[in-house]
Amino acid sequence: MGRPIEREAQAPPGDARPEARPDAPPARLVIIILAVFLALCVGAALLPHDRYIRYQQLSQTLQFRLEWNYDRIHHDPTPIDLALIGVSRTQAAVSGPRVSQILSERLGRETHFVNLSFPQQGRNAHYAIARELLETRPEVKVLVLAVVEQMPRTPHPAFRNIADTRDLVTAPRLINYNYVGDLAFLPWRQSSLFVQTLFPAAFGMKTRFDPADYEGTHMDSTASFLSPPDNWVERDKLVPQAELARQTAQYLQGLVPARLPARFAEYEYASERVYLRRIGDLARRNGTEVIFLFMPIYGGPVVLDDPDLIAPYGPLLTASFIVDDHRLFSDYGHVNRNGSRLVTRWFAEQLASLAQAGRIDLNRQPE
Known about the structure:
Layout: H1 27-45, H2 51-56, H3 65-74, E1 82-85, H4 88-93, H5 96-107, E2 113-115, H6 123-136, E3 142-147, H7 159-162, H8 165-169, H9 179-198, E4 225-227, E5 231-233, H10 241-254, H11 265-268, H12 270-286, E6 289-294, E7 316-318, E8 329-331, E9 334-335, H13 337-356
Parallel strand pairs: 1-2, 1-3, 3-6, 6-7
Antiparallel strand pairs: 4-5, 8-9
Helix pairs in contact: 1-9, 3-6, 5-13, 6-12
């Protein structure tokens, strides 16, 4: 008997054959897509642009003074003998024009000091400004850096806007709360700056220095001013002592001691430590000496959390005489005009004394 013929099974009437699912994309296709995306990001990150436009991006923000900093460094021919890079405390406390005047009188020769401080903490942004300054102005003899009672853990938020591409890429990765976000922002930033460089007028940008838009060599950061978009900052304000004490207590309560053992401080405070070294290297290569300035808050500590960190780089000047006088403050962290007059005079006298004692050299000529 022959073998029965096998027939293909047929679905019962009314039953539908299940639809075939499309095959998953092969791994090679996924790799190609990712590689193309990465190449586009890298290509965008390498797009050229006008550095001047980069600094104009912040002209309508809290950091609007950074544009003046860029103009003073790159476009104002007036020499810079000493410069202060700090935070809003030193911005409010030290009058650049007045320090220049006092130093010139004390030393018997024209001496130019400039206050390049700007709001918020973060040594990485100070490094970006220090690079602009020291790579452009070889005549800078002394660089003053602001310090606060406890170094910040987080980098400066404006670093992603003003730093060079290589500085964003080579920023410390561990522990850096902003690294991934800054790197992801980079292709967009570069693409935007590239287009604005091609069509500056369409975006309200300028590629050439306009003296009419410049506040001048003698801009005084201790004066009252309008902060964008429409915030009047009153430097002559007086605040009741009880209110200052309340503000200080709130600020100090927010300070968090080191969470990690001391041997891990290099990672917990990565931004402060890494960029302090980089600034120190820049200063050494330029023959520039480094000094530190500590402006205490009202009723706050007059010693640093980690004074040994800055000791290898230069001396520390502390304005401890202001700490208990509420009449000198416009809020817990910033002196008013009365305070700035006293601090400016004291600071200029300290610098003059260091120069006359030979501890800083204000006679060095650039190589």
